[in-house]
Design brief:
heterodimer; A: alpha+beta; 2 domains; four-stranded antiparallel sheet; 4 strands; 8% strand; B: alpha/beta; Rossmann fold; six-stranded mixed sheet; 10 strands; globular; FtsX (chain A)
Chain lengths: 301, 225
């Protein structure tokens, strides 16, 4: 990365005089600019998707992994006694950091999305929920179940792994897809810039012949092309980045009940990544053009 | 400087040149003549490393052409000024920049050589055209510009392929004058031409040797020319 930066800095400083030996060409310039802008625009979204799902997978597997729920379903007169017994058991269980019975108001808030705000929960046979927070080491779920079965017959332990695992797996897959898309986008950009460079070199065969005749080395000729394509790719990528970030900012912001789709975007340090894209586009253009130029020049007399 | 030793060159089909031996001494003035298609241009290309002999040996400044890499050939071209038959320029750059092109590609500071460049352009009678683009120039102006470009690096050898091909008699006299002047400054000159009156005109001003390509061989032409 450091070596690339040095080369890029060298390119940017460049030899503007030597740059002029290659005539400005219309359509390859526009093609490179467009390809870089479009690919960076797509890359911004692929990156946002990867980061968001990565974040999601991480949250699901850490926060949820450390909590579990105990549900106490029994006749109304038994609830208070069994809750107290369950809490007693949990407090003496190794690996449980804390256990807390949810208040009536909290239970109502949980049910509200399904039943609406006006349902009198107190009159319904709603089971009592106990929230369990694990320690880092975790507890032995099977051992706890056996103890509860003996002492609190109405208790059902739900340690969330059952439905958490497929979600985490899905999130990781989506993230892998996002990263794969980023790789493909980079590859396509390299391919398009290689084609554009080939066409520019072919269109300038006479220029190259004249330069060779007056004693120009291949490196000098290649540099003139490479510099131009790299700068074009970087400016195109900056344009695509601006449009992509604009699109991301226009997305509705994340809502607690909105699920993960509205959480698409960048957070905290994640904002650095999209700004690396123009640099990456420049590096891709640099290597693609240099390879193309060297290969073509070697084949000339 | 340029030594050809029993050199031969053949294109896909037959042999174009064979058994060619020549030593180009510093400061000499050579004409190369022969019928069209005899291989004058090919011969010159062998002399500046654009073609590799199919047999024999070509030594340029003590280096065997076969052992030169692409970069070595580029460095060699800075010591050999070439004027092509069809002078090609960078059509998007003005004349002055085209003439300064060899300085630019060899990494020399063009600004520092501005005075030399101006003198050279004036010497070739192109001062009034210095900002013109190459396609706007006449045939004679192009030939003179190509000559100016060939000598700006102060090369030791100047190879000119039909430098008077597209110009009238008066202009060809001026071009010859430029080449004779360069030879008097110590440059080795070789001019390929089929214009015998040009050779006669040169003989009155400078000691020349005339080489003739005939029947694939290089011969020293008689004094009768």
């Amino acid at each position: 990365m450091r070596a690339v930066l040095v080369i890029l800095a060298d390119l940017l400083r460049g030899d503007t005089q030597a740059d002029r030996v290659v005539p400005p060409t219309g359509f390859t310039a526009r093609l490179t600019l467009f390809a870089a802008a479009a690919m960076t625009f797509l890359a911004v979204f692929a990156l946002a998707l990867s980061l968001a799902t990565g974040r999601l997978a991480h949250n699901w597997s850490t926060e949820l992994a450390r909590s579990a729920t105990l549900r106490i379903s029994t006749s109304q007169d038994q609830v208070a006694a069994q809750t107290a017994a369950a809490l007693q058991v949990l407090q003496t269980t190794e690996g449980v950091a804390s256990a807390r019975a949810l208040s009536e108001a909290e239970q109502q808030a949980l049910l509200e999305p399904w039943f609406g705000p006006d349902v009198p929960i107190a009159d319904l046979p709603v089971p009592q929920l106990i929230e369990i927070i694990e320690t880092r080491k975790g507890y032995d779920a099977e051992g706890l179940r056996l103890r509860l079965a003996a002492e609190v017959p109405g208790a059902v332990l739900d340690d969330h792994t059952r439905w958490r695992r497929p979600l985490v797996r899905a999130a990781s897959r989506i993230r892998a897809m996002g990263l794969l898309s980023l790789g493909l986008i980079g590859g396509i950009m390299a391919a398009m810039i290689t084609l554009a460079a080939h066409s520019a070199l072919a269109a300038n065969a006479q220029v190259i012949a004249v330069l060779r005749l007056v004693g120009a080395r291949d490196d000098f000729i290649a540099r003139a092309f490479v510099r131009r394509f790299t700068l074009r790719a970087i400016s195109g990528a900056i344009l695509g980045l601006a449009l992509g970030l604009g699109g991301i900012l226009l997305l509705p912001s994340a809502q607690p009940e909105g699920g993960f789709l509205t959480g698409l975007g960048f957070q905290g340090w994640g904002w650095i990544w999209p700004f690396l894209l123009p640099l990456l586009a420049g590096a891709v253009a640099f290597w693609a053009t240099r390879r193309a130029a060297r290969r073509i020049l070697r084949g000339l007399a | 400087m340029i030594e050809l030793d029993n050199l031969a060159y053949s294109y896909g089909g037959g042999e174009l040149l064979s058994e060619i031996s020549l030593r180009l001494a510093p400061g000499s003035f050579h004409f190369l003549t022969g019928p069209s298609g005899a291989g004058k241009t090919t011969f010159l290309k062998l002399c500046y490393g654009a073609l590799i002999p199919t047999a024999g040996r070509a030594m340029l400044f003590g280096q065997d052409v076969r052992e030169l890499g692409r970069d070595d050939v580029a460095l060699l071209r800075r010591r050999i000024g070439v004027v092509h038959q069809d002078c090609q320029f960078l059509d998007h750059l003005p004349l002055a920049e085209n003439i300064a092109l060899p300085l630019m590609v060899s990494g020399r500071d063009v600004a520092a050589e501005a005075q030399n460049l101006d003198d050279l352009i004036a010497w070739c009678g192109l001062s009034h055209r210095r900002n013109a683009l190459p396609p706007e120039l006449s045939g004679g102006e192009r030939q003179r510009a190509a000559l100016a470009r060939a000598v700006i690096m102060s090369p030791e050898v100047i190879l000119a392929d039909e430098p008077t091909g597209n110009v009238d008699w008066e202009m060809s006299q001026r071009l010859l004058q430029l080449l004779v002047e360069l030879n008097r400054m110590g440059k080795t000159v070789m001019i390929a031409t089929h214009d015998l009156s040009l050779i006669r005109a040169a003989k009155s001003q400078v000691q020349t040797r005339v080489l003739r390509i005939a029947n694939r061989r290089l011969q020293l032409a008689g004094a009768d020319l």
